Structures are given as structure tokens and as C-alpha cells.
Amino acid sequence: MSKVTEYILTETFSLQQIKDTMYAQQAMYNEGLQNKDIDGLISALGSFSTVLGLVFTAPTPAAVGGAIAALISTLGSNDLPNLKDIVEDGYWDLGSVEHWMEQNEQYDIIKLRIGFLDYKDEGIRFVQHTGTQYIDEVHSIDGGWHTSNR
User: Fold this and answer.
1) Rounded-to-integer distance, Cα 30 and Cα 51, Å
2) Alpha-carbon span 148 to 150, nearest angstrom
3) Which of 24, 30, 34, 106 sits at a 20 to 30 Å CA gap from 141?
4) DSSP sequence for 58-99
5) Which domain holds residue 84?
6) Is 144 helix (H, G, I), strand (E, B) or coil?
7) How far apart are alpha carbons 115 and 97 in whole angstroms?
8) Residue 13 is inside which H or E element, if any?
9) Above 80 in pLDDT, residue 77?
10) What does the alpha-carbon distance between residue 50 and residue 60 come to, in Å, rounded to a whole number?
């Protein structure tokens, strides 16, 4: 069984990077964990390769696919459903941040605290939780960083 670590990091994102992270996590849930279609997962992640190394630690779609395949093979029958729930929750949390950024167009970049669930042995991590309450700073389109009121 893989060693699992949970931790929080602050990362800087544009709206597009939030969207790419959200959809990459959704692909890992749908194609990887749910359908166990590694080729489909690799194909789906091709559009989001710029965030893979930053967010999920696996730098390419093929590396993510290999990590997911290895992870599925090591998880117990109780662990996979729990992981699927965590990955799905992380996806929805990212969606709340996406929505907030779309509603606050005066900001182009955010510094966001993200809780990760890291499977070091397999070389993959997932967004476990985040949300608008975890926005630390926002960058105005006009320039300058501002501490978030959230």
C-alpha cells in the first residue's frame, strides 16, 4: 500500500489554470478512477498538460496515466471509493473558485491554499479541498496584489 500524505500549499493561479486543474481532476476521476481507461485518461489530459506538473506532480499525461494505473492496482476495495469521493470533492471545490473568479473579473490571478492528498510512491497527488475561503491574495488587472477579504 502506498504512503499517503496530506498537506496544504499556497499556489498562484490564473482563471485558465483553475479551469485546467478542475478539468484535469475531473478526467482523473472519470477516465482513471471510475472507468479505469488509462488510454482515455492520457488522451483527455492532453489539453491540460501545463498544470499537470504544478498541481498533480506528474509532468505529462502519460506519467499521470501510469501513476493512476499503479495507484488503482495498490488500493484496497475500501480505499478506491474513498479516493473517488475525495477527488470528486476537490473538483467541486475548484469549480467554486472558478465561479468566483468569473464573477470578479477585476482580478486576473489568485493565491490559493489547496489541500492535497499525495501518493508519493505512485508519483501522483490530487486536490483534496480548497474553495473561495482559501483565497489568500488577489491580483488586480490594474496591477498590485491585495489581501483577500474572504
Assistant:
1) 18
2) 5
3) 24
4) --SHHHHHHHHHHHHHH--TTHHHHHHHHHHHHHHHHHHHHH
5) 4-147
6) coil
7) 14
8) strand 4-14
9) no
10) 9
Rounded Cα gap, residues 72 and 54, in angstroms? 22
Residues 6+ apart with CB under 8 A from 149: none
| HEC-encoded secondary structure of 101-133 | HHHCCCEEEEEEEEEEEEECCCCEEEEEECCHH
Sign of the torsion formed by the C-alpha atoms of 35, 40, 48 and 6 = positive
**Is a pLDDT exceeding 90 seen at residue 3?**
no
In the chain, the N- to C-terminal Cα span, in Å, equals 38
Burial class (CB in 10 A: 0-12, 13-18, 19+), 102: exposed
Count the domains in the chain: 1
Select from 19, 6, 20 the least CA-distant residue to 102.
Answer: 19
Gap between the Cα atoms of 66 and 124, Å rounded: 9
| C-alpha closest to that of 111 among 130, 131, 141, 139 | 139
Cell of 6: 496530506
Sequence-separated (6 or more) residues with CB below 8 Å from residue 148: 110, 135, 136, 137, 138
Q: What is the pLDDT of residue 1?
A: 58
Task: Please give the grid coordinates belonging to residue 112.
Answer: 490559493
Rounded to the nearest integer, the mean pLDDT of the chain is: 94
